[in-house]
């Protein structure tokens, strides 16, 4: 075998050489055969003998064999019958690729003579390949706004087959957006184009897929597919749109800060940034920006500053939603502020009169206006003042009120009013405002000064020092200021004879009364006058009061002995019969005291006696009586000194000397008579004196009785009500005799003294009243009726 092969190899090389040479020499004949690809090995290709006109034997004899250029044994020759058979299955695509026709060249070598026969074998294509896409999945991104008719390139498919079996057409699964158009390159390559039939809308369909099919022209046709995914690229073709074109909200004005009032929302059909919406206010006023805030992302509108219905009742806010691509939509939010009773009423005073003269009829005190910045019931108001005041509130023109006095005011009863004006609104809760004002009532001179007493009684001790302050009057005036400044004055006395100006003076400012000179009780026991008080108002008002000055007695008068007279040249001598029994009334010492009251209470006592024990003096009566029976041994002449003492402080006294003669058989006829001539000479005038004296004394007695009765009655009636009588009251000491009344003789003795016939006529003396004025027994009463009584009364002898 080895040798065989080596031999054939040698032969071949030789042959090749011959062939090369022979080709040029000997004319070459060729046979053409054709066979379909992919035939099984051994398949019959053609009969060499027949086609080339060779004898079968010749083939064997000449040792015919098939050689190929590439030394591959694809054909084999059956030399017995000259059939060419495939020694292997042929793949046209492998052998020729896309070259068409696919021809294989063979030589048939024969020796003796050497001859080359050319054989061409065409391998025919069969449709044994399907079109194939290199990319099974294709992705196309197409902006949604691409115009209809736009063309997009797709990957082409490959089909290894050629000719009719090659790629023929492309199709896509039916859809409404695209159709396919096949294009042919200059190099005959076929590729598909996608043509847009209908506008894409990302928002409607953001993605679509279809199958691209490539078909070849074989029979049956083969196909290959690929999937095509078209992604629609969003274009910002949609503006954000609000859910509502108009939002309306109502919120109370006192809503808390931070409150979310409303949430707006807008959508955008675009995606990604184009669909991202942010919210903002569009051309908002300063007020809106101050008061509200919008959350850029969430669309929440919140309150950032407090609202005031009274300032702004509603807000209209244009809000804008903007997407990432700059498109925007708008909506309006209307915020209605609801009134809340958050404003108290206000009071504005237009005019005010804070001081009002009293006694004025209805007067306007204040004009004021009220207002409430709320509306509705929250703004309706009621105006009031406390009820117990003499003021009223009147409504005048709209919201204007006046505060007026209801009646005349009286400063003296209330000089000041604190008025609280209350204004309340009708909201819920009710709010109120108060205004306080003080109205003062100014004075008008409507009150006269008033004396503290209608009548003043002043007591002045006699013998006072001049300019002594004896008392005060005072008057008050209920007015104020000058209207209440009181000046005092003395009014002209009713009794024109009373020298008032020289008696008292008054301090015009203080009302103090002064005695101008020393007063003498014995001369003037009492006097009265009127004082006036006037204010300084205009016109001035005045009033008056009565002042009664009582001069109080001082013990400045010693008792004065009326009987027996002391200054007579002939001392008074009493005759006492020796036969007189004990207790015989010798005489009676009569004394008076110019003072009154206690100062005039007199007591008598025996100061000296010639023979003590024989005579006694009754202390309160002044009666001198014998103390025992007289005896013969008693001296004839006795001298008695009787002391008369008043009860003043210190007491004053007087003494009187009595001469007593003890006589035997004392009787009228034995009385020594004055000599007849003298008696005759004096008879006539004496008789006249006697008659006059009798009449006088009788009338005096009668008057005394009357006065006594009057005094009793007066005392009784005045006992309870503070004695107006000048006579001092008090326990009357039993040993004293009251001779108040200066010279009022004790009535019973008066008579006795004057009529004692048993005294010698020569010693009979008439009493001449020494005290010119009789005392007023009840000055409080009588002096008013007859103030000049004591001046006019009296008698002279
Ligand atoms: C390809 O196929 C379509 C229909 O699928 C047809 O309308 C078109 O004419 C065909 N093209 C070719 C070149 O055969
Ligand atoms: C008015 O008010 C003033 C001050 O508050 C007070 O001093 C005065 O006594 C008051 N007057 C009356 C009449 O209430
Ligand atoms: C007004 O007066 C009343 C009492 O009279 C008092 O309660 C109130 O506080 C006063 N108001 C003002 C504003 O002074
Ligand atoms: C005695 O005194 C009285 C009164 O003082 C007087 O009137 C009278 O004349 C006097 N008699 C004599 C004698 O002096």
Descriptive report:
- The chain has 797 residues and is mainly β.
- It has 6 domains: 97 residues, Immunoglobulin-like (Sandwich), CATH 2.60.40; 102 residues, Immunoglobulin-like (Sandwich); 98 residues, Cadherins (Immunoglobulin-like, Sandwich); 97 residues, Immunoglobulin-like, CATH 2.60.40; 103 residues, Immunoglobulin-like (Sandwich); 210 residues, Immunoglobulin-like.
- The chain is built from 10 helices and 52 strands.
- The strands form 16 sheets. A 5-stranded mixed β-sheet has the order 44-51-50-47-52, with no helix packed on it. Strands 1-7-6-3 form a 4-stranded mixed β-sheet. A 4-stranded mixed β-sheet has the order 9-16-15-12, with no helix packed on it.
- A hairpin with a 4-residue loop joins strand 4 and strand 5.
- Helix 7 runs antiparallel to helix 8.
- Bound molecules: 2-acetamido-2-deoxy-beta-D-glucopyranose (NAG) (4 copies).
- One 2-acetamido-2-deoxy-beta-D-glucopyranose binds next to loops.
